Amino acid sequence: MSAQAPAGTPPHRLEADLLLVLTTLIAAAGWIFSKEALTGMPPLIFIGLRFAIAGLVLALFSLPQLRALDRRGLRNSLLVGALFAGGMVLWILGLSHSSHLGEASFISSMGIVMVPVFARLFFGDRPPASTWFALPLALAGFACLSLDGGFEVELGQWFFLGAALVFALMFNVNSHIVRNVPVRALSVVQMLAVGVLVLPPALLIETWPQAWSAPVLGWLLASALLATTLRFLLQLHGQSLTTPSHAALIMMLEPVWTALAAAWWFAETMSTLQLAGCGLIFLALVVSRWAWIRGLFGGRG
Hints:
Layout: H1 13-37, H2 43-60, H3 63-67, H4 71-97, H5 101-108, H6 110-123, H7 130-147, H8 155-177, H9 183-205, H10 214-240, H11 244-251, H12 254-265, H13 272-288, H14 290-296
Keywords: Cell membrane, Membrane, Transmembrane, Transmembrane helix
Protein name: EamA domain-containing protein
InterPro entries: Diverse_Substrate_Transporter (IPR051258), EamA_dom (IPR000620), EmrE-like (IPR037185)
């Protein structure tokens, strides 16, 4: 028997589900694309180029929204873009130091759990009770991943955790400050901000590759055009066809697909403790969205 859809569910649910699942698959593939690109490019130059290219391409699809962006909207979008740039720098540094993509993807997903905590700290919001159950589960999962190496947190793990915290803060700033900014215009500004803020210092501290091999260039373009621009366009359309809570639940699949993709592409394996850590973090994601899950399956919260 199929579950009864919650009241107020928009039409086109199947199309939305398929688009959002495809989005999570492309996002997972993006981890592979980026990791492969880093074999021939310095991390900061790569991330700056990736988002500069993606932002310029996305701008071509967003000209009406960009024209509607006023000065205040631009200023607030640049603030969010600066946070996004900081988060992506931490993320790519984590990826460059990481030896296990599956583990890294679950650490990065901890930002979802931290969103309501930051909302409480910085904006005075009252997070749901499920937040306080999810947070210790996520921390326990991170501890398990650290214990796998003898209770020594790897540098890449710290970078991914830092990125998760910055993205949690960015989500809150995004929700409270740029509510009236067209989403495509905001995304273009965010992407271009990464290129503008990251590329100049990257060129000062990193060495531009003397030769660009075809595979590395291909991975860069795949990261920019598929894992960034196309992913965003599909995600935006999918989210427009369903409720935000339903979309968020499907997006939780990204670390699962990433772990499976890394196991297939890089032949990664996980120890029992790593599996336990990833399982606890995923459980924390489910708990943090428990009210939405109950609503999805006809429960009352």
